[in-house]
Amino acid sequence: MDQIKLPNIEPQRLQAVKDLCLTQPTQDPGLDRITELTARLFNTEIALITIMTRDKQLFISAFGTNIAEIPRQDSFCNEAIFHEQPLVIEDCFQDKRFSELPLVKDAPFIRFYAGQPIKSPSGFIIGTLCILDSKPKKFEHNELRNLQDLAMIAENQIKYIADTTTDDLTGLLNRRGFYGQARKHLDLAMRSELHASLAIIDLNRFKDINNEFGHAFGDRVLRIFADALTQSTRKTDLVARFGGDEFVILSIDKHSDDLYKVRDRLKTAIAQLRPLDLPQAINIDFCIGALEFKPTAELDLEAVLADAIQCIHNPT
């Protein structure tokens, strides 16, 4: 792997990224409107709002591509985050810094790039608003200003997301709200010498529901599932929607085997809450992975979540 060029304040920048809890596509309508508007305004094939992590560039909102992330060393934007002003590459073939990047040599065969850094509420550059096209383009001065203005709108929307701790659709905690509450719960468990359990729950074939029946029915399924999850857990449990079709439960003084038992209660609650007008072809099914752990001061909750994902298995 090529050595990644890093800013001098990289540790502080990465902490700002971590504080925002934006580590996957947000499915935020506000950000999606910005990327769509940006692509249309500049007449480019692709527009992205990106976050630069330690080793990846995450596309938290994308118009014109289904790619969700790329290695950081393969990114145009890793150069852009070193500058306050937009980075513009009118023809990538003519720039030795970028002519060998996979996005240039292979699909989508990018020839033009322009990226404006975006900052966290704490003032650190965390990523970019960028536009890309498979044809070389001239970029005028007034277009630079427009890109900067749109990036500022994206920054404001990211701040709004960061300040919000509940999921608008389901009323559950969102990712940021979960992390804020989880640390308090785990500190209490540590002081009381209690164990903890964490479960990750994914809806099965949820994308197929959206594709076949439309997002309105998909949203109804998410609300039904969230209500069923609330009914099936204790009031002291932390229940959150992390985004898309992924849900999380954190329980204190409860074994992971107990969280697997939530599966049966969930199925019962879903059957009770299912409205009569929901098409019978929509099957609300899910898979769950759970593990037990001992809270410590050094605990990396992201690592625990990753381990729980590995425990996921389909319900019988």
UniProtKB/TrEMBL annotation:
Pfam families, A to Z: GAF (PF01590), GGDEF (PF00990)
Name of the protein described by the UniProt record: Diguanylate cyclase
CDD domains reported for this sequence: GGDEF (cd01949)
Residue ranges of every copy of the GGDEF domain listed in the record: 194-316
Gene3D superfamilies noted in UniProt: 3.30.450.40, 3.30.70.270
Matches recorded under NCBIfam families: GGDEF
Species name: Thiomicrospira aerophila AL3
InterPro entries per record: GAF, GAF-like_dom_sf, GGDEF_dom, Nucleotide_cyclase, Rev_trsase/Diguanyl_cyclase
